Amino acid sequence: MTNDTNTPVIDRFSFDNGIVKAFLLATIVWGAVALLLGVVIASQLAHWKLNFGISWLTFGRLRPLHTNAAIFAFCGNAIFAGIYHSSQRLLKTRMFSDTLSKIHFWGWQLIIVAAAITLPLGMTSGKEYAELEWPIDILIAVVWLVFAFNYFATIKVRRERHLYVAIWFYIATIVTITILHVVNSLAIPVSLFKSYSLFAGAQDALVQWWYGHNAVAFFLTTPFLGLMYYYLPKAIKQPIYSYRLSIIHFWSLVFIYIWAGPHHLLYSVLPEWAQTVGVVFSITLLAPSWGGMINGLLTMRGAWSRVRKEPILKFFVAALTLYGMATFEGPLLSIKSVNSLAHFTDWIVGHVHSGALGWNGFMIFALLYYTVPKVWKTKLYSDKLATTHFWVATVGIVLYVLSMWASGVTQGLMWQAVEGGRLVYPDFVETVTKIIPLYYVRAFGGLLYFVGYIVMIYNLTKTIISAPKNVEEDIITAPRLDTNTLDAGKESGHRWVEGVASTFTTLVIVAVLAGSVIEILPAITAHTYMKPIPEKTPYSSLELVGRDIYIREGCYNCHSQQVRPLKNEVLRYGTKSVPEEYIYDHPFQWGSKRTGPDVSRVGGKYPDLWHYRHMIDPRSMVPQSIMPSYPWLTKGRVNFAELPKKLKVMRLMGVPYSDDEIKNAAQDARRQAKSIVMTMNLASPPKKLEERDIIALIAYLQKLHLKKDI
Amino acid sequence: MSTNDQPQDDKLLDHNYDGIQELDNPLPKWWVNLFYITGIFSVFYFGYYVFGTGPSLEEEFQASMKQDQETQQTATPSAITFTHSDDSITNGKKLFVSKCAACHKASGGGLVGPNLTDNYWITGKGTDQDIFNVISEGVPAKGMIAWKDLVKANEIADLVVYIQSIKGSNPADGLPPNGNLVE
User: What is the pLDDT of residues A154-193, one digit of tens each?
Assistant: First the structure.
């Protein structure tokens, strides 16, 4: 070998800014949709008439669309825009394949459109933040793997030897989301748009909240920290405060976050050791979370005067501060006594939105204001409008979060109030009426945030329109990375790992799998949580289809199905929950919010006729109720022919249906429906009432009970 | 974040990613201490609840229920007196409209639940005590819920007095008789 081969080859290339522009535009559009949906459903809670009695406009169907749009459409597209923009520059290379980038972009938009169509139609798996049905789940997995392949191939062809901290966070995002999505979406299809979760009851709950919590971790936290590590130093033009802090808080965050999921299930029938694991890891998570915040804020040292003038920096500071606040509130809410008050109330909704509106939203706005002028090679149209956006949105967040705190604490205390062995507020609806004014404040706060967003759209549109046309892409030159000439011997420890992407990625996988396996595997393989009890028989075929309607209408968005072992809950609802009562529940329907009361003991409490009238018009039975009316349930017809197949799928997963029960599923359902219609003895029943959805739903609700302690 | 520790005092590493540089500042002490404190707390918390003497959820629950039984004042139905006064009727009517009307209609003529204004009774014979028992304990088989935990005993008594006062009012849209005739 001659010395000549050691002279690095200088490559000439350009960045793919087209894909960045595409994802930026998608972010702007879907963000408007997600926020508008938020304003709509917030208004529906304040004023029930805004459900309009139309199935696809009701809260239960739109709330999942709102959460999916905010997380996967708005934040998702923003993450991709930032990752494609920053990674090409940090790795000194164009993306590995423009075609794969395009497949990723269009695939992701297709998924969003599919979600926007199927969720309002009630096609849902009934698992929070993972509602999309199995064909879309498969599409998500495929598109995500295309993205992952393209990304790791880009790393492979990089011209920067070491991976910068932003890339670490992107890698953690890509590998962990793959694992979470695949495991939590495991289901057996019944038809093209209906499947049943592979897991049941407590086990399904554990998997779901391992997923749900870590969607927050690896979709709303790690990628955004990555974005922060690129865009903040770029905007402020100062070095990152501490490289060592980056290393420590990255690895501790990735390792610890994955364990904390069970804090969503405190006081549930989940094994208690798993609940305690959730608590302690949530508390230990405080420092790793704050590590990111302080590394960002300290990077701004000496530049605070610029925050007054530059709107982008304002968004960064507010985002990091609200991130710090939300990640302090998280561990606080994980403490059992706090959780017993706050869980199921609006406090949690406020907590989530200080993170989503404050941290994710403001980070995205900073990203948009920074990147849009950069990739369109122009200046932002108006700094003044961006500042207006900042203040309007900030007031919006403050109103939102304060009203939800007040509402959550008020309602939580009202639920808990027990005097001389009696509930002080025995009527659930009393506790709802009390907080309605706060729902108006919240809706107004959300509206302000949306108005700020419209100002941003105007500002960015003006910016893009005024950008010079047909500008040629810059030609970048960089020395090719020659793997033969690596100074491998000179480096050790973390610096060495940063140069070897495969080792780095493997370590990330080990870090996230450790918690996942130790926490989840024992519970999902243990048969102690799957012991049948005589009090709880499998659902009859009509009850099963009623349960599907319960899931379709999104009842779980407002009603829980678990009575916690707390005095006030046992007084209000009845016997506390036991794990055995959920063993046939594919998927579980414990819920996470009580806008309405728990329903796990509602069976047998009221006559069938009460439910019939209550579904058509809740106000006829509970005058102050804010529940939407469900008149279409008397029109929709049960698909009796599909029942044997549904029972068969259930039996495949271990529900003990006999051959006869499967064979006669349709007749059995018709017989049970007829008897319910007979019992109600309506003066002038609608035609063919015994075939309608409402009867199946009543059958299911009447099955929800557990009379005595086990 | 005092303004006197300026970035230029810190050691700059030779990292450069698209112009982004990194300083080699040590971890802030308070942050490290926070990490230690939460970690140590967690070890003890876990040990206390999983291996130690920390109460299980079941034990906490039983303790709270027991404490409750000691302070609970159970109203014994036999001690209830029914005062057929205008005050009781007014109060009973108010309660009836808010709690009972959904199923029995504001007129008492019946809807989901039976007509309460006629002389037919499904459970009991329509005496003050019978009606009190039905309201208090409920008739689960018929879908009548037990109200004893939701409404105080003296208020149930007022309800009984009100219900007795509308007997024979014969509202126009009342349900047909149901149960046994009591003369």
Answer: 999 999 999 999 999 999 999 999 999 999 999 999 999 9
Same-domain check for residues A452 and A556 = no
On whether both A299 and A347 belong to a single domain, the answer is: yes
State the total domains in chain A. Answer: 2
Q: What phi and psi values does residue A176 have, to the nearest 5 degrees?
A: -75, -40
CB pair distance less than 8 Å for B42 and A233: no
Q: Which two tokens stand for residue A420?
A: 């001389």
- Chain A closest CA to B36's CA: distance in Å? 9
Q: Are A194 and A268 found together in one domain? A: yes
What DSSP element (H or E) covers A423? strand A422-423
Instruction: Tell me whether residue A86 is in a domain.
Output: yes
What's the ipTM?
A: 0.89
User: What is the 3-state secondary structure of B5-64?
Assistant: CCHHHCCECCCCECCECEEECCCCHHHHHHHHHHHHHHHHHHHHHHHCCCCCHHHHHHHH
Q: Are A570 and A456 within one domain?
A: no
Q: Are residues A329 and A395 in the same domain?
A: yes
A298 contact residues in B (CB cutoff 8 A): 1, 25, 28
Number of A to B CB contacts under 8 A, please give it: 165
Q: What is the CA radius of gyration of chain A?
A: 27
Q: What is the pLDDT of residues A112-158, one digit of tens each?
A: 999 999 999 999 999 999 999 999 999 999 999 999 999 999 999 99
Residue type, A201: G
CATH number at residue A431: 1.20.210.10
Tell me the residue range of the domain where A679 lies.
Answer: 541-703
The one-letter amino acid at A148: A
CATH of the domain at A663: 1.10.760.10
A635 belongs to a structural domain: yes
Closest approach of A65 to chain B, Cα-based (Å)? 34
Distance, C-alpha A100 to centroid of its chain: 26
Residues A584 and A462 occupy one common structural domain: no
CA distance B83 to chain A (A): 24
b/e burial code for range A92-131 (CB count within 10 A of at least 16 → b):
bbbbbbeebbebbbebbbebbebbbebbbebbbbbbbbbb
**pTM for the model:** 0.93
Angstrom CA distances, A393 to A390, A451, A542, stand at 5, 8, 48
Whether A412 maps to a domain, the answer reads yes
Residue B151: its H or E element? none
Whole-number Cα distances in Å, A563 to A12, A345, A569? 65, 15, 6
Give the end of a domain, one of A459, A483, A517: A517
Amino acid (1-letter code) at residue A562: Q
Tell me the pLDDT tens digit for each residue of A542-570. 999 999 999 999 999 999 999 999 999 99
Tell me: do A567 and A513 sit in the same domain: no
Of A248, A302, A565, the CB nearest to B6: A302
A328 interfacial to chain B (CB closer than 8 Å):
no
Token pair for A96: 């590995």
Which residues of chain A lie closer than 8 angstroms to B65, CB-CB? Answer: 567, 570
Report CB contact under 8 Å: A245, B64. Answer: no
Torsion from C-alpha of A537, A540, A544, A547, nearest 10 degrees: -70
Q: Which residues of B148-169 are buried (b: 16+ CB within 10 A; e: fewer)?
A: bebbebebbbbbbbbbbbbeee
Yes or no, beta carbons of B35 and A287 under 8 Å apart: yes
> Same structural domain for residues A507 and A608?
no
Give which of A23, A86, A81, A93 is closest to A234, Cα–Cα.
A86
CA A281/CA A276 separation, integer angstroms: 9
Whole-angstrom distance, CA of residue B181 vs CA of residue B183:
6
Residue A698 included in any domain = yes
Q: Which residue intervals of A285-310 are DSSP H helices?
A: 286-299, 304-309
